[in-house]
Amino acid sequence: MTVAVDLVDATAALVVLLVALVVTARAARLTIVRRRDANIAPLRQKLIALIADEDGDALKEFRDLEPARWKMLEPYVLSLTAKLRGESRGALIALCCERGTLARALAASHAARAARRAVAAEALGTIGTEEAVARLGVLARDHSSFVRAAAVRSLGRSGRSEGVPTLIAALEPDSQVPYRFVAQALLRLGEPSAPSLITALEHPHTKVRERAAEILGLLGAHRAVPALLRAAGKDAPLELRLRALRALGRLGAPEAFTRLCEATARGEDQNLRHIAVQGLGRLGHRGAVPILAAVIVEGPDGLAATAAEGLLALNEAGEAALRELAANGSGMAQLHAQAALVFAHRDQYRQRAAHSLMEASP
Amino acid sequence: MSLILVADDDRDIRDLVVFKLSNAGHEVLAVDDGPSALAAVTERLPEVAILDVSMPGMSGFDVCASLRSEERTAGIPVLLLTAKAQEADVQTGFAAGADDYIVKPFSPRELLSRVEAVLARARR
Q1: Of B39, B65, B68, B70, whose CA–CA distance to B53 is shortest?
Q2: What is the pLDDT of residues A60-76, one digit of tens each?
Q3: Gap from B58 CA to chain A (nearest CA, Å)
Q4: What ipTM does this complex have?
Q5: Topology of B3-123 in CATH?
Q6: Is the pTM of the predicted complex or chain greater than 0.80?
Q7: Exposed, middle or buried: residue A231 (CB in 10 Å: 0-12, 13-18, 19+)?
Q8: Does the distance separating the beta carbons of B86 and A83 come in below 8 Å?
Q9: Res B85 pLDDT > 90
Q10: What SS3 state is found at B85?
Q11: Which of B81, B89, B106 to probe by mutation at the A interface, max A CB count within 10 Å?
């Protein structure tokens, strides 16, 4: 009994001690942050004003700042640089290079501790010079997954197309960088990543081809349409066809009409048919009306509902087909058409219902 | 001189925009969230509203849609400030009634010229 009571007391004391430690650590951290913010506040205001003026020469004061104050300000300058584009960004990067920030980040990228290398990667991405991007290429293959992810994110932030080959290599599953990070980095780099992604549609690794197709669609890279059409061919692996067709639908490429129509055929995979039906709705091609109407009649239900939505996207011709099915169709086809029409005109129905209620009320 | 409303939860961006527009001779009303932006327009009607898309609680899209739904504020030109450059996000912005959008990271100079262009269009 006494042993049990002692054990409870000891556990309670331990919990209290832990809570006290956490609270103290947080308070100390908050104090440090507040003190640092108070110290840099006047410099921050001045820096913001100079940046707003986009007067690179006016940054001279910060070039001459004593090292201790610069050390305090440096993380803030880096975070501000990441929010800017154009001349102001260029001026801040030049300032960072002059104050040795780049050299320090390059040195820290060789540190033994992964956390230090990851922080260095973030700084290198913000500075984004050729030298910084080259080093990020090495860090993207670091033995720590934490550092690899930071390097990939930073390559996207650097805004430099020199980082694209590294990112394409990171699309390979054995690169062990989460696909989400790589895709976001390539999307952030934008159109300059399109040529390499188009080349990646021929990559020997199927997973890379699938991912490249998906990113090209998200990127809105219209120049990728011919390559995506090839990737969506009937002889391609199913997953690649799915992603290439989805990308073509997203791009709203009229050239994709035939490929999308082929993929709605009854013998095709259900997911593929679904994506093709969605794509036909997005394309806005009047020729899709009979095909989507046939899908509504043939089902299955999920696919028919998507086809009905697709018809709505085809404006007058699509709506006319839906009205025909709603009036003269049979079974589920009639219900799907009616549901789509009610959805399209819901505001009208809502107003009519409200009006009827008003009239019926005493 | 025009009255411009700026709503962004990022203090650096808010201050930068305020400095840039004030230096160009505009009066700037700065707030850090969506509800404050809507409260501000009930007191004074700005000539342009610059709204950050990703604000906690109420997004720039929501604020824009709210402005458009009120007769008094429906005509305020809206510029969205967004880190989201994907086509779907831009479409969402325009669907909510935005007149233009600026992608973050941004150039203060570009922001000013976009604001001037929106003001010129509104005055025509």
Answers
A1: B65
A2: 888 888 898 888 899 99
A3: 22
A4: 0.87
A5: Rossmann fold (3.40.50)
A6: no
A7: buried
A8: no
A9: no
A10: coil
A11: B106
